[in-house]
Amino acid sequence: MTRASYRLTVAVCTVATAFAASPAFAQTAQPAAKIDGADTAWMIAATGLVLMMTIPGLALFYAGMVRKKNVLATMAQSLAATFLVSILWAVLGYSLTFTGDGAFIGSVERIFLRGMTLDSISPLAKTIPESLFMIYQMTFAVITVALVAGSVADRLRFSAFLLFCVFWLFLVYVPIAHWVWGGGFLGTYGTIDFAGGLVVHLNAGIAGLVAALVIGKRRGYGSENLSPHDLALAVIGTGLLWVGWFGFNGGSALGANSRAAMAIVSTHLAASACAFVWMALEWWTRGKPSVLGMISGAVAGLGTITPASGYVMPMQAVLIGIVAGSICFWACTWLKMKFGYDDSLDVFGVHGVGGFTGTLLAGVFAVAALSVGPDTPKGIAGLLEGNPQQVVAQAFGIAVTLVWSGVLTYVILKVIEAIVPLRVRSEDEVMGLDVSQHGEALQ
After folding, report:
1. Are 380 and 195 in contact (CB under 8 A)?
2. Is residue 18 part of a domain?
3. Which of 242, 313, 316, 337 is most open to solvent, judged by the fewest CB atoms within 10 Å of its CB?
4. Is 283 part of any domain?
5. 286: containing domain
6. Cα(271)–Cα(392) distance, rounded to whole angstroms?
7. How many domains does the chain have?
8. Nearest-5° angle of CA 39, CA 40, CA 44?
9. Which of helix, strand or coil describes residue 330?
10. What pLDDT, on a 0 to 100 scale, did the predictor assign at position 259?
11. Phi and psi angles of residue 156, each rounded to the nearest 5 degrees, phi first
12. CB 357 within 8 A of CB 337
């Protein structure tokens, strides 16, 4: 090699190295997917926390608020939702939600988890094993289905609930989760939902309301004492839900990072603010602050902050909690009395109204400080550029979820009713579902 050619080679290499290191080039380079130990460890913990939210968290929360004769039947619904939805999710639910690039539904690429290996990674979670991403998302599907049962507590036949789990998972939960999180049309349009304001809370809330209207009121509603038999259980359940929600919202960052930490801070502060406001309103309107009101406020705050938790700063989370405390209290008192529906455990008033409120406020309060990086959702990116249409995108997501979940839930219940009765017999309801449905009873 001559001296001239050597100098030319060095010059070309130098220019190429400089170009590769330039900001413009760095923006186009995509980091390779690689399993990270810290992210994996955090997501394993988060998965355990979210599973704990259903069993025993939701099971205890719901069981403490029904009458003694229905405690075991109520807990059985949470337990059954856990094992049945888990199997269905692994067989087909995960694949339809998180594989493929369809605008309306995913693919069957991972049916029966086919092709999933020790080292495979989902493009939606690039630093953890795909198996971990799959089971983390499974816990969301589990609790969403289990939540709906609270609206029809004390009267839903167990066999009908099992059929509901199957139909509702595939026809309602899976499509909406794909639309928002799996590359579907809502996410593409710009609707943002960090951890499940639409997919979980509004979805379960409107389904619960429809189920309560279709099945009808509890026997003795408005004339008999239907008060909770053991609020101590409900308080323990609330504590498990509250702690588990750190995995629910913090884990939705899909890594051990600052966004996860801020989501946890926002989650705790919003729940605290909402519980305080609910307590204050109840104290003012009814003369005494009840334990039932305080735990209802805490859960309402947790549900309302969920869609915004990864996109807001702490004081904005407090404000969201204050708004949630006022609106959800109103929904569970005045609105419920005005229209006379029997939503047994206030799934619509707490989760439905909370999910609606939080999803809308996510578009109002999302900030740049928590919205940077190559995987920033399109809706957030638009908001940071001064796009005033973000609230419109949120409203569109709300409307789609309300219509799809409401209509399909009604259809599903009518189909099930043609197969088995939805409601237990009147004499079984008087006896209690523990004995009539399961042949067991608390002593």
Report:
1. no
2. no
3. 337
4. yes
5. 36-431
6. 26
7. 1
8. 120
9. helix
10. 96
11. -85, 130
12. no
